[in-house]
């Protein structure tokens, strides 16, 4: 948005060539000197100098700073403020992106360091394509996998410690792509609810 007055005469003078603007400024300066001369008699020299400086400065701004320049500048600033952040491929990743990458790496590293019992528990999700396993949610295997964010909280609620447990999607996808991490456990049987439950 332009800060310049919206007067047609000002716009007309702003379209003049540089020499014509300079000549107009000299005319304003001369007229200011002549008409403000009576100030010396009534108000003193200081008022005269203030008027003699202020009027040409304002005239210079009106004549030489076009509204188009201020509009272009403000549009450029608006455009910069509205631009989406640079894509991760062209600039340094943000702190949030770095945290996400670090969390992903930490979780994937956990899958590379699974214990024998954890591998045996997770294998049926991959090799038998089960969606849940019935296990003791107070037990060490579940608690360890839950802390590593590999399995979800129990799928069912109740007072019993045995519940249906789901594997997190990211872990299932990663293990499906890296089946070698569960090598030797291809025939592990899923943990299912006993008939008397």
Summarize the structure.
The protein has 197 residues and is mainly alpha-helical.
Give a description of the structure.
- It is a single chain.
- The protein is mainly alpha-helical.
- It has two domains: 8-82, no CATH class; 95-182.
- 58% of the residues lie in helices and 5% in strands.
- The protein has helices at residues 8-14, 18-36, 38-42, 45-64, 67-82, 95-112, 116-127, 140-147, 169-177; strands at 132-136, 162-166.
- Strands 1-2 form a two-stranded antiparallel ribbon.
- Helix 2 runs antiparallel to helix 4 (45-64).
- It is rod-shaped and about 110 Å long.
Short descriptors:
single chain; 197 residues; mainly alpha; two-stranded antiparallel sheet; 2 strands
């Amino acid at each position: 948005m332009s800060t310049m007055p919206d007067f047609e005469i000002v716009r007309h003078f702003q379209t003049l060539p540089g020499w014509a603007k300079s000549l107009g400024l000299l005319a304003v300066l001369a007229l200011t000197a002549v008409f403000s001369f009576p100030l010396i008699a009534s108000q003193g020299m200081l008022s005269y100098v203030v008027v003699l400086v202020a009027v040409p400065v304002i005239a210079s701004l009106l004549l030489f700073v076009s509204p188009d320049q201020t509009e272009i500048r403000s549009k450029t600033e608006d455009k910069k403020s509205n631009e989406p952040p640079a894509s991760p491929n062209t600039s340094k990743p943000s702190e949030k992106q770095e945290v996400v990458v670090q969390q992903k790496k930490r979780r994937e590293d956990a899958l590379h360091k699974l214990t024998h019992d954890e591998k045996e528990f997770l294998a049926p999700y991959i090799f038998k394509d089960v969606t849940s396993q019935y296990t003791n949610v107070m037990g060490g295997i579940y608690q360890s996998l839950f802390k590593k964010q590999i399995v979800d909280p129990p799928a069912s609620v109740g007072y019993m410690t045995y519940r249906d447990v789901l594997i997190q999607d990211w872990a299932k996808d990663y293990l499906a792509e890296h089946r070698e991490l569960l090598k030797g456990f291809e025939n592990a049987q899923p943990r299912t609810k006993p008939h008397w439950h």
